[in-house]
């Protein structure tokens, strides 16, 4: 939506890219022309070109629609909406759905691309964007099923003889901090922002354990993944949370180690955990209030101290000979930060960089080679979506297993950029059908 000299993105604009036409997608309103049969992944589809019967109608879909050939449900559509104006612009988009249960397809991925769109005062809009939808099953985890799994042994009194029942002030403080940590993580899980524990966490924990062992740090720490795109990290208690978007663009394990070392340093230095979350009411609020309520960014003095400690951890680690790659990533991030303001802006925790400098381990930039965008073999950062695959229905994530592709030109490096979605569609078969094959 254009307003004066600026562009405002309206929520209904995103919703329009989720549904072809929420109110009037029918033969009375649209013309349908069969184009071809084709496979999208493993799903055979029928493709139709669709246009409104009234060419002057505003806000009607025009483009191509794919429907699967069993129940004829829409699985993909791309195009735009008709007769936009300077005050209400429509962008071109490619919207995908995935099959999550037999006969049930949900919106999952949307790619937007525009170039040369007039925006008033002689300006034009040129951009690319990705929208990912998930959290359909948020809050429906196995918590309720745990209630049915509780076993009560009658006539056997509880007898705890493990030791003294007295608790020292230090133990009480640690217990209080653990409560705050658990409340914080559980609230993120309920909102659908934190991925379930899985193989990606195992990869992060392996790198973290390498840092702990090499640095002789007697700490019991773990990693979790925030499902959002902006580059940020959080450490609360003994848990390090890293955003999916940040993991996506890291070019190698040494760069991941650099990111984890920055938060591990806060834990090693004993920097304060936000214990206010230990109070139950602090995490009792609506999801739309989450960013304001769970904001937990470290002050500048703690970031500076952690940067020095992180460098100490990294130089003692197995990644010490590859820190130039991590520095090259930071160099690339700083170079592009002015045009990545929303991508580098943290929502909950600590952002990796500002618009002109990095917020941690800046010393690594000095060890990095010069940034050469035209050099094919120099990969400073990856495109978004390069590492993690997200199941929109369950919030489970896994490592992307795409085959390596040789680059043909430097423009294909696409550091920090978005690319179109190409989804390999599959069907979820009923249990009886799957067993019969």
Question: Taking all residues together, what is the mean pLDDT?
Answer: 88
Low-confidence stretches: 1-5
Major sheet details: 7 strands, antiparallel
* Class inferred from helices and paired strands: alpha+beta
| Residues in helix, % | 25-40%
The side-by-side strand order for the widest beta sheet comes to: 3-4-5-6-7-8-9
> Which of globular, elongated, flat, extended, rod-shaped describes the shape?
globular
SSE run: EEHEEEEEEEHHHEEEHHHHHHEHEEH
Beta-strand proportion: 15-25%
Rg (C-alpha, Å)? 25 Å
Euclidean distance between termini CA atoms: 51 Å
Provide a count of the helices: 12
The total beta strand count reads: 15
Concise account of the structure shown:
This protein has helices spanning 11-16, 143-148, 169-191, 199-214, 244-249, 253-268, 290-293, 300-315, 323-336, 341-344, 363-367, 431-436; strands at residues 2-3, 6-7, 30-40, 43-52, 61-68, 74-81, 93-101, 104-118, 124-132, 222-226, 232-236, 239-243, 350-351, 388-390, 397-399.
Structure description:
- Mean pLDDT is 88; it is low at 1-5.
- It contains twelve helices and 15 strands.
- The strands form four sheets. Strands 3-4-5-6-7-8-9 form a seven-stranded antiparallel β-sheet, with no helix packed on it. A four-stranded mixed β-sheet has the order 10-12-11-13, with helices on both faces. A two-stranded antiparallel sheet has the order 1-2.
- By secondary structure, the protein is α+β, with helices and mostly antiparallel strands.
- 28% of the residues lie in helices and 22% in strands.
- It is globular and about 75 Å long.
- Helix 4 crosses helix 6, helix 6 crosses helix 8 and helix 6 (253-268) packs across helix 9 (323-336).
- The longest helix is centred in the middle third of the chain and has 23 residues, at 169-191.
- Strand 3 (30-40) and strand 4 (43-52) form a beta hairpin.
């Amino acid at each position: 939506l254009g307003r004066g000299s600026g562009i405002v993105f309206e929520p209904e604009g995103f919703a329009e890219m989720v549904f072809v036409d929420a109110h009037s997608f029918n033969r009375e309103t649209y013309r349908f022309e069969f184009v071809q049969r084709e496979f999208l992944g493993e799903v055979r589809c029928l493709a139709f070109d669709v246009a409104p019967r009234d060419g002057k109608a505003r806000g009607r879909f025009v483009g191509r629609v794919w429907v699967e050939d069993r129940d004829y449900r829409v699985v993909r559509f791309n195009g735009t909406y008709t007769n936009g104006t300077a005050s209400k612009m429509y962008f071109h988009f490619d919207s995908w759905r995935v099959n999550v249960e037999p006969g049930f397809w949900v919106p999952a991925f949307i790619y937007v691309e525009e170039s040369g769109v007039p925006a008033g005062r002689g300006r034009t809009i040129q951009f690319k964007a990705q929208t990912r939808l998930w959290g359909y099953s948020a809050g429906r985890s196995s918590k309720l099923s745990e209630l049915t799994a509780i076993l009560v042994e009658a006539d056997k009194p509880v007898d705890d003889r493990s030791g003294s029942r007295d608790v020292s002030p230090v133990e009480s403080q640690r217990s209080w901090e653990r409560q705050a940590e658990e409340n914080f993580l559980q609230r993120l899980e309920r909102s659908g922002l934190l991925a379930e524990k899985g193989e990606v966490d195992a990869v992060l924990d392996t790198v973290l354990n390498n840092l702990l062992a090499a640095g002789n740090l007697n700490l019991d720490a773990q990693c979790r993944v925030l499902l959002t795109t902006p580059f940020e990290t959080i450490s609360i208690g003994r848990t390090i949370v890293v955003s999916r978007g940040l993991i996506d663009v890291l070019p190698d394990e040494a760069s991941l180690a650099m990111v984890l070392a920055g938060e591990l340093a806060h834990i090693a230095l004993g920097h304060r955990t936000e214990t206010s979350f230990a109070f139950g009411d602090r995490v009792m609020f609506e999801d739309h209030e989450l960013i304001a309520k769970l904001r937990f960014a470290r002050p500048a003095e703690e970031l500076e101290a952690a940067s020095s400690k992180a460098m100490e951890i990294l130089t003692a680690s197995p990644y010490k000979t590859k820190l130039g790659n991590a520095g090259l990533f930071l160099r690339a991030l700083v170079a592009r930060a002015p045009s990545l303001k929303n991508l580098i802006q943290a929502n909950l925790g600590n952002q990796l960089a500002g618009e002109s400098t990095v917020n941690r381990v800046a010393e690594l930039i000095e060890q990095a080679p010069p940034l050469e965008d035209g050099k094919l073999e120099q990969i400073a950062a990856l495109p978004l979506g390069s590492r993690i695959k997200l199941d929109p229905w369950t919030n489970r994530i896994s490592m992307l297993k795409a085959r390596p592709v040789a680059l043909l030109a430097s423009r294909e490096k696409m550091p920090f950029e978005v690319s179109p979605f190409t989804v390999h569609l599959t069907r979820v078969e009923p249990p009886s059908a799957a067993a019969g094959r």
